[in-house]
Design brief:
single chain, 149 residues, alpha+beta, Beta-Lactamase, five-stranded antiparallel beta sheet, globular
Length: 149
């Protein structure tokens, strides 16, 4: 993955801090993560264990891809937001700049309207820093034959 040119290690730390703030300040939010379109973790809230964040990133990438398919098939424009209601909480997804998505996992009593509002405010505040370009095309290392994409 090639990260957006405006993203530096300092920016990554700031995003982690902002995602952690979202979790701490919005009632019912458990975890927050920014993921690239190809399913990699760009940034995550502090208490979100890395292995779980990586699993969720892959899931979010797939869900948003399915959403884009529905938009194309039924002339819906682009995906703005998606909500998955579970018995014990919600997964709320929103576009977060070019090639990136913000995902939040909540508890069941969370006010999804408030959570979605705060997610959108965060994206508006730092949207350009949330962008992630897709990974470069794979090419074989020098001297390697039989490489297939």
């Amino acid at each position: 993955m090639t990260v957006h040119p405006h993203r530096s290690p300092a920016t990554s730390n700031n995003l982690d801090f902002l995602l952690t703030g979202l979790v701490q300040q919005v009632t019912g939010v458990r975890f927050a993560v920014v993921v690239s379109e190809d399913g990699l973790v760009v940034s995550k809230s502090a208490a979100f264990p890395r292995p779980e964040a990586e699993r969720l990133a892959a899931t979010v990438s797939g869900l948003m891809s399915l959403g884009r398919g529905v938009c194309v098939d039924f002339d819906g424009g682009s995906v703005v937001q998606s909500l998955l209601e579970m018995r014990r909480g919600f997964l709320i997804l929103t576009s977060a700049g070019a090639g990136a998505h913000l995902a939040v996992l909540t508890e069941s009593q969370a006010d999804v309207g408030v959570v979605a509002f705060e997610m959108n405010m965060l994206v508006k505040k730092v949207g350009e820093h949330l962008s992630a370009a897709p990974r470069a095309e794979l090419s074989p290392p020098p001297g390697v034959r039989g490489f297939q994409q």
